[in-house]
Amino acid sequence: MTEQTSPPRLLSLLPFGVFLSLFIGTGIVLTLQGVEFAFYQLPASVAIIPAIIVAIMMGKETISEQVNQFIEGAGHSNIITMGVIYLLAGAFGMVAKATGSVDASVQLGLALFPDYLIIPGLFIVAAFLSTAMGTSVGTIAAIAPIAAGFIEAASLSPALVAGSIISGAIFGDNLSIISDTTIASTRTQGARMKDKFRVNFKFALPAALISLVLFAFLGGSADYQSEQAIDVIGLLPYVVILGLALSGVNVFVVLLVGILLAAATGFVSNGYQLSALASDINKGFANVQDVFILALFIGGLSELVRRQGGLQALTVSLKKLAGKLSPNNPKRAAGLGIASLAFSANFFTANNTVSIIITGETAKELAEDGNIKAAESASLLDIFACINQGLLPYGAQALLLGATIGISPVDVVVYSFYPMILFFAALIAFWRITKN
């Protein structure tokens, strides 16, 4: 049966507008009411349901035909692959935490730095842990309580400490092979993870070095002593999965090896039980079920909107805008279009993974038209979504850090130097490599 797609029509993007309006509107209202974590009270996977209904109502086909289209989009190989990887990544993170690997990484990292380098040291610890875990929020949850402890005993700026941690967490999340943003960006663009990592690293390293200098210059000293012995064996799962991932081993194999190795280190070092392994894997699955469900729903909604001409109309509009920004350089114009698309989408969703999933198809079309390599387009998507996420006071990272350290989320992002610097570093780097 021949696929039927309606002519380009911007009105077909209305369901996405409904989704964002519900998601953001609820967050704003709850914020004004003083509700904590206001932007996360209405899960995105629930907010998108009315948008799906609107999309079906706007369609010209029968409900049965549109439901089939929705299921086709939700069952796309990219969506299912992302979902399975999310589950495995969630399981690995939970098992690693339960067996002490997370604590071992934090304690070792803090022990490596003298007290006068504790602020840049926190950046490095957060960067390593986030790269290994694939989650900036999980990294902040692990490090923030320790940081809060020595803030109370030393003359350190809580906002500066928070800025260092969120900067390192965003750096690692953006680069990590197992991060959901990396998974989403590479799958939507058809890029290999190690290729995307190499492109990303060229943009990220200069920004990280400048950030370290700033944190070292502004930071003070802290009298911090590790309260527990460092379990070196707990670092093994992270070292192995990073090595395997950077070697190009299939991500499914990497995560499965990580889960088994984390469990094995727990068996050896602290008597971790097989029954606990099964329970922790299940908890890990549960932790990522919201983003898994959302990925399915986004895939289905995107297919409905695509069939109705919405995504094609958006692509046409972005091509025109990108062409005006750089009329004599199609590659540069396409890159600027991809960057602005990811940055803008994340501003509304406050979720870098969601913004990448929503904009992935359009970004791929822009990349193909501008002759941008898949790894470069995936890198641009991930970078500019993460930049925005690291600067949003209503993002999960700033909210969690603020609540743990006891400062306003706005104060958290004031010293979030890395995303600020990465914004300009990435633009300058891309501008140079696309020079005629």
TrEMBL record:
Listed Pfam families: Na_H_antiporter
One Gene Ontology term, aspect cellular component: plasma membrane
Protein name in the entry: Na+/H+ antiporter NhaC family protein
Domain Na+/H+ antiporter NhaC-like C-terminal positions: 23-219, 240-429
GO molecular function: antiporter activity
Family: Belongs to the NhaC Na(+)/H(+) (TC 2.A.35) antiporter family.
Domain of life: Bacteria
Protein location: Cell membrane
Record organism: Thalassotalea euphylliae
